[in-house]
Amino acid sequence: MKLTDLGPRNGSHSRTFITLLFGTVLGFMFATFISSTTVRLPEYYRQREPPTVVSDPHTGNDLREAAGPEQDVGQHGAHEEAHAHENASLAQQLQREVRILCWVMTNPSNHKKKALHVKRTWANRCNKVLFMSSKEDPLLDSVALPVREGRNNLWAKTKEAFKYIYQHHLDEADWFLKADDDTYVIVENLRYMLYSYSASYPIYFGCRFKPHVKQGYMSGGAGYVLSKEAVKRFVENAIPNPQCRQDGAGAEDVEMGKCLEAVKVLAGDSRDSVGRGRFFPFIPEHHLVPENVDKDFWYLQYTYYTPDEGLECCSDNAISFHYVSPNQMYVLDYLIYHLRPYGIVAHSQPLPKKLSFGEIVWAKDATIPPKECPQQQQAGTLESLEKSEKPPNT
């Protein structure tokens, strides 16, 4: 073998060694860089729960499934400039004259997740509030009713709740509002609507649906309010009545409508003076935004009065919205009770006149054009309830 034959092989080995050495150094540097940039990330994420909602504000969905704040968001002080010039004397007068007991349907799994945020927002404006559950909880001072939880037991829970109120709180209010733990209520507007009516009248109000019950019935999710006389008739006469469903199953709002009709409690018209609705079974945007739902959506088939689209859907004195998330409770509270457009000074509407029982609108009211003032419609009587025609085909 010649010495010159070893030259190329030694050069090749040198190049290979240099390449290997360079790759090793480069790989080590890259690995060191990666490890140095990620050493803090695992610790950072271990200390925090992964987000449960999309946090990008551009999506618009970050509040939809949020669980609500851990602590109370607080209130603006009454001495602050925007609130110091408010005149709440009329609202305070109605709080004394139209006493409302609000009871909220909830369950142990929702006490902290939903009901607590109702308590921190709208419920404190009721004259009295009760949280009806199957378990006592000092967080809410909830009432433990003798019922099982679950959708198939809502009717049983509703009956037990009204029996409890009848036995312990009947004389503490004139009107009795049932709401879910995802319902938001503007209590002042509810008092304003009820001002015209005596609590001695057998009547109840809500978002009125037309199937299943001759005079219609009120949506459970939107909330419904019974007069004191209606509560008496429900507990004393309806619950033991064979015409009233005796077991705990069935759709709570439908069964309530059937029972109240059986004891001649009237399904009232809650629309405002120009025929706009005040109780709503969905969040505001679903009612306000035109063509937000399909034309064959069940709500459009169920509603007793043909709903309008856009701003015409909803009264300026709207009372309730349903499927409101815990975070949205605080958003609505801020928008309604704190946000003020500067330079626009609102004056209270005059209180409506007190209505005699003969002037109350009920089963025949749908024969009147929807934009005509409901309070000017033809009156009816309790006796004619049994002779009333079926709900209109709206």
TrEMBL record:
Enzyme class label: transferase
Entry's localization field: Membrane
Keywords from the UniProt entry: Disulfide bond, Glycoprotein, Glycosyltransferase, Manganese, Membrane, Metal-binding, Nucleotide-binding, Signal-anchor, Transferase, Transmembrane, Transmembrane helix
Bilayer topology: Single-pass type II membrane protein
Gene3D superfamilies, per database record: 3.90.550.50
Compositional bias annotation for Basic and acidic residues: 77-86, 384-394
TM stretches of this protein: 20-39
Highest taxon listed in the record's lineage: Eukaryota
One cellular-component annotation, GO: membrane
Chief subcellular location: membrane
Chain spans, region Disordered: 50-89, 369-394
Pathway: Protein modification; protein glycosylation
GO molecular function, one term: manganese ion binding
Names of the cofactor(s): Mn(2+)
Pfam families referenced in this protein's UniProt entry, alphabetically: Fringe
Enzyme Commission number(s) of this protein: 2.4.1.122
Record domain Fringe-like glycosyltransferase: where: 100-263
Functional summary from the UniProt entry: Glycosyltransferase that generates the core 1 O-glycan Gal-beta1-3GalNAc-alpha1-Ser/Thr (T antigen), which is a precursor for many extended O-glycans in glycoproteins.
Assembly and oligomerization: Homodimer; disulfide-linked.
Family of the protein in this entry: Belongs to the glycosyltransferase 31 family. Beta3-Gal-T subfamily.
Name assigned to this protein: Glycoprotein-N-acetylgalactosamine 3-beta-galactosyltransferase 1
Species, as recorded: Anopheles atroparvus (European mosquito)
